[in-house]
Write a structure and sequence with these properties.
Elements: E1 17-25, H1 29-40, E2 45-48, H2 56-59, H3 91-104, E3 109-110, E4 115-121, E5 124-129, E6 133-141
């Protein structure tokens, strides 16, 4: 008679979710500033950003973009903007500043992480990302006001021979075909 003894080794599984006190969605000015204050209070948090580099939301905008506030008003808490007072920084200067800011204060930013869903459950939040699931007591949504283009439905009724482009796709005048231009709307 043969007796087989089955010995199973259980590897401790990584939890499917990780719990944090605060999750900040968006690593731009607002998300980094909130991170600065949470870090100064020794709170457990993470900043999630879908871009490859901090500041990429600025780098992707049109080439000639300048901030409409002078540099002395463009800094975040704890670190003034490094341009001359009264100057109007460009998009790349702002992007580089944000990247330097996150590094200077060692903010826990996870890049290339897209938030796919956010659910409120009892006394916490569940955050589904492209990388993992998180739970959190607090969520700060700091994605800004223009992550998705808003194109009016009426644009579908315009003659297809008329070139249309949303500002999110505009880089410079070479983006447009030759001819007259009509800009509709005052926001970006």
């Amino acid at each position: 008679m043969v007796i087989y003894i089955l010995i199973l080794f259980f590897k401790e599984m990584e939890p499917e979710t990780n719990h944090l006190n605060t999750v900040i969605i968006g690593g731009g000015q607002a998300g980094l500033a909130v991170g600065y204050f949470l870090k100064s209070m020794n709170r457990e948090f993470i900043i999630l950003d879908e871009n490859i580099r901090i500041g990429d939301s600025w780098r992707k905008r049109w080439d000639s973009l300048k901030l409409f506030t002078p540099s002395q008003h463009d800094g975040l808490p704890g670190m003034p903007f490094p341009e001359l007072k009264g100057s109007f920084p460009g998009k790349n200067e702002m992007a580089d500043y944000l990247e330097h800011y996150a590094s200077e204060f060692s903010l826990p930013v996870q890049l290339n992480v897209k938030v796919n869903a956010l659910h409120s459950r009892n006394n916490h939040y569940e955050i589904e990302t492209s990388v993992r699931k998180l739970t959190s007591d607090n969520v700060v949504i700091a994605t800004g006001t223009n992550p998705f283009p808003k194109i009016p439905a009426i644009s579908a009724d315009i003659n297809p021979e008329i070139f249309q482009i949303h500002s999110s796709l505009y880089s410079n005048p070479e983006t447009l075909p030759p001819g007259d231009v009509l800009v509709v709307g005052a926001a970006t």
